[in-house]
Design brief:
Its main location: membrane. InterPro entries: LeuE-type (IPR001123). Keywords: Cell membrane, Membrane, Transmembrane, Transmembrane helix. It is a multi-pass membrane protein. There is one protein chain. By secondary structure, the chain is mainly α. Helix content is 82%, strand content 0%. It has 9 helices and no strands. The longest helix is centred in the N-terminal third of the chain and has 28 residues. The chain is globular, with a radius of gyration of 19 Å.
């Protein structure tokens, strides 16, 4: 049997790679963006929350894994592809922001009705919107594929995938906490005014992100 002194040196690189993936990913995803606001909104509704968390974690793991495997270099060598991804992200963020402001200005009770079960939305529709918010945002690729992926690619051999596992764990912890926060805020969002503030803030955030992304084209 292996003794602790023998196992410690062997496990040290593994734990270091896992911790590196965890800390790097957590430092980048802890921000209020389009994806996070949507997960928070679904958590307040109490609809398909686990599926949303699972999709976000899966997307992060796949994109970071792709970056580790070399997609970061591919994007760097295909500026036109990066341009069209950016343009699509700008248009989607603008559209999402307009819909959020429309709810805030003309349908302030829509979020409250949905939270009470007055508005049904299927799992496919929810996950489709979340996938679009995730995959049409160019900064997701910048954070996961380029930044985190390039750091993970520096790990040796199989430690690259230990790094990816650490990053996926950080993603799971963050989105689980976000979902829990949304559930805790259900009482706060028991009034149309709270939904109006959330939708107005969401719309403003989407417009700022769209401008920021377009500025970098």
């Amino acid at each position: 049997m292996w003794s602790a002194p023998v196992l410690a040196p062997a496990l040290a690189p593994i734990s270091a790679s896992w911790l590196a993936g965890f800390t790097v990913c957590l430092s980048l995803i802890v921000s209020i963006g389009a994806q996070n606001l949507y997960v928070l909104r679904q958590a307040v509704h109490g609809r398909h929350v686990r599926a949303c968390v699972a999709l976000c974690v899966a997307c992060d793991a796949l994109l970071i894994g792709a970056g580790v495997a070399g997609m970061a270099q591919l994007l760097g060598q295909a500026p036109r592809l990066a341009y069209y991804l950016t343009l699509g992200g700008v248009l989607f963020l603008l559209a999402y922001g307009l819909f959020a402001w429309r709810r805030a200005l003309f349908s302030p009770g829509a979020g409250l009705d949905a939270a009470r079960g007055g508005v049904e939305r299927g799992l496919i529709g929810v996950l489709g919107t979340l996938a679009a918010l995730t995959l049409l945002n160019p900064h997701v690729y910048l954070d996961t594929v380029v930044l985190v992926g390039s750091i993970g690619a520096r790990q040796e051999g199989g430690l690259k995938w230990v790094f990816v596992a650490g990053a996926a764990t950080a993603s799971l912890v963050w989105f689980a906490l976000l979902a829990l926060a949304g559930q805790r805020l259900q009482r706060v969002f028991a009034s149309p005014r709270a939904w109006r503030v959330l939708d107005a803030s969401t719309g403003a955030m989407m417009f700022v992100l769209a401008w920021w992304v377009w500025k970098g084209v």
